[in-house]
Amino acid sequence: MNPLIYAGLSPLSRFGFLNRAKAPIMYIVSEVMGVALEEITSKSRRFDIVMARCMICYFTRKYTKMTLSEIGIALGGRDHSTVIYQIEQYPLRYKYEEQFRRLANKVELMIPTSVSGRK
Length: 119
Hints:
The protein has eight helices and no strands. The chain is mainly alpha-helical and 119 residues long. The longest helix has 17 residues.
């Protein structure tokens, strides 16, 4: 994508623009988890916020063409290595944590077909 198209937009605006959907992944996860966007982008290490960030990193990487750095910036200025770590943690959390699995399935069902490519 040409960077001039979204030059000057805030990271959250870029996130929505690159997602090309009415309900970007970040907003879907925020709604399902019951966590405010400000909390997701904050420095908080509260468990529910960490779970939300993990889902956002995984689904954004899976369904968009955003780079790891762009995802990190959208999540409050985090480093690309933090995003990699969250993506690697997703399968482990999904396998061993029932609550996480339930919420992740709910989020994935809510992701619009235009983003996921599902029919």
